[in-house]
Amino acid sequence: MLTPVSRTKRRDRLFVGDPSMSGARIRRRATVLTVGAITLANTIGAIVVTAFALFALPKPESDQDTAILVTNLSVGVGYLLLALAVGVVWGIRRLAGGPDGHGQWLLDDRTPTAEERLFILRAPLRLMVIEAVLWGTAVVLFVVIDLVFFSALLALGVGLTVLLGGITTAAACFLLTELAMRPVAGRALASGASSRRGVPGVATRLSLAWALGTGVPVIGLLMIAIVAITPVEIPENTLAITILALGGITLGFGAVVTFLAAYATVHPIGALRLGLQKVREGDLEIELGVWDSTEIGLLQAGFNDMVTGLRERERIRDVFGRQVGEDVAARALADEIQLGGEVREVAILFCDLTGSTNLAMEREPQEVVELLNRFFVEVVEVVEANGGWINKFEGDAALAIFGAPIEVDDAAGRALKAARELDERLRERVSELEAGVGVAFGEAVAGNIGAESRFEYTVIGDPVNEASRLTDMAKSTDGRVLASEAALDACAAGERDHWELGEEVTLRGRSRPTRLVLPS
Question: Beta partners for 215?
């Protein structure tokens, strides 16, 4: 069973065209659909004229009935065929001709200029004007013929009938060619929104749909009422049949036209709704086709601009999070950034490679980078698994913090556990390298350090210095992991069982002695 999304895509290919199609194929498709739209519009107009001539303007019997019928029918059929041919040729040539036509840029498969894009958006209006001119000429022709050969009353009635047919044809031509031209409009608008100067909008579409589906048939009913109050006698049965016929046309034809206009408006709105649903579900790769020539097309283009902005923001957030850590990134994006910090109790884990200078001298640069990356992968995974975050990488060393910027329970215990696990992982998975690991605990200032234009979130304080010194000392011990007694005292009972007290030393650069703690 097709999902709603797949059904929408299939429908889009039917009415909008496949975005992967070549420009030449889109042009051919639009040309065929436009010819069909013009033909269908004129057919609808002819049906309306016939229905009105037979029902809306019944006339008393006359010796000239046969002559009137033959003359008007012959002229009507002949002119309809001629107008249809002229309308198709004129309309297609008008669209494809000139430097602002829709032909060359599609054949070249290039982005249209602003002028060419505007021309395409105005295409349905241009074709509607062509049909209005052709049917306006028909009104003049029929009025002159019936006025010269028959009567002024007949000329008025036939002229009004043809005028209503012309209104119907022009309105239908606009609505149908708007759908027919959507593949071209979609390709034109794919490069961005365009000026809407002189482009009909949703209000025009709905107004024409009303005129076509309701206005013209109601005018026919009004014409019957006008004829009924003139000296022309209309039998009651004829009047009833006429009203029923026009009422049926109003209901049936009006429903079809209203559905057509509603679909033309609701279809792109439905695509917008599905797009918003995808974004709400976290899919930022969604991109809507922009094909509607009304204000809704601007919404489609605006939606794509919005999603592009969200994608860019998410990419920045992802890169930012990789640079400074997800917690710091989330805090920076959520709060107003301020320089300065706050005193926090934190656990510091420092990890540094042994013999990195010799490593760089003895191995190729690419090999050194590959080893360092393997080393840092283990550091990052272990630290993050225990609730800490990597504050910075310093060449071949890494500084991890537990307890800032996000507070965690048992920060000291987490750091001690991470130190033990990290040593085991490095011995097992990166045996080519040796590293010392030091853990300290205490109060430090955590916050944004630097200038307004360039800063970083970090911690400054005695625990950082102590962890660094412990790491240096750990490099020369068998266990390669050392911690301070303060960290052991602050951790929970479960982790304390894995450590034992060692000697008391005074670390380089510190005046107070530190009691060492080693994994048991």
Answer: none
Beta-bridge mates of residue 401 = 348, 389
What's the CA gap between 385 and 421, in Å, rounded? 10
Cβ–Cβ under 8 Å, residues 518 and 499 = yes
Cα separation, 332 vs 325, whole angstroms: 11
Give residue-wise pLDDT tens across range 168-197: 888 888 888 887 877 777 777 766 555 556
> Which helix (H) or strand (E) segment is 353 a member of?
strand 340-353
| Residue whose pair of structure tokens reads 């007694």 in the numeric block | 485
* Cα–Cα distances in angstroms (integers) from residue 220 to residues 292, 298, 420, in the given order: 33, 38, 92
Q: Over the chain, what is the mean pLDDT?
A: 78
- Residue 504 zone, left/alpha/beta (φ > 0; ψ -120 to 50; rest): beta
Which CATH superfamily does the domain covering 336-519 fall into? Nucleotide cyclase, GGDEF domain (3.30.70.1230)
What's residue 99's pLDDT? Answer: 45
CB of 147 closer than 8 Å to CB of 71? no
> Judging by DSSP bridges, how do beta strands 514-519 and 499-505 pair with one another?
antiparallel
Nearest alpha-carbon partner for 56 in 47, 68, 65:
47
What stretch of H or E contains 95? helix 65-96
**151 Cβ neighbours under 8 A, 6+ residues apart:** none
| C-alpha to C-alpha distance for 421 and 412, rounded to whole angstroms | 14
Direct distance between the N- and C-terminal alpha carbons of the chain, in angstroms, rounded to an integer:
61
Distance, in Å, from the CA atom of 301 to the CA atom of 290, rounded to the nearest integer, reads 6
Among 294-303, 376-385, 492-501, the least confident range: 294-303
**Residue 279 CB contacts under 8 Å (≥ 6 apart), including other chains:** 286, 307, 310
Residue 504 CB contacts under 8 Å (≥ 6 apart), including other chains = 513, 514, 515, 516
The pTM of the full predicted model, rounded to 2 decimals, is 0.54
Distance (Å, whole) CA 183 – CA 179: 8
Dihedral pair phi/psi, residue 363, rounded to 5°: -120, 160
What are the residue ranges spanned by the domains of the chain? 4-300, 336-519
Q: Are 29 and 17 in contact (CB under 8 A)?
A: yes
Res. 467: pLDDT tops 90: yes
Q: How far is CA 67 from the centre of its chain?
A: 62
- Per-residue pLDDT tens over the stretch 62-113: 556 678 778 878 888 888 888 888 888 887 777 665 444 556 777 777 777 7
How many angstroms separate the CA atoms of 248 and 437, rounded?
89
182 contact partners, CB below 8 Å, separation of at least 6 = 15, 16, 17, 291, 292
**pLDDT (0 to 100) of residue 471:** 93
Q: Are 321 and 329 in contact (CB under 8 A)?
A: yes
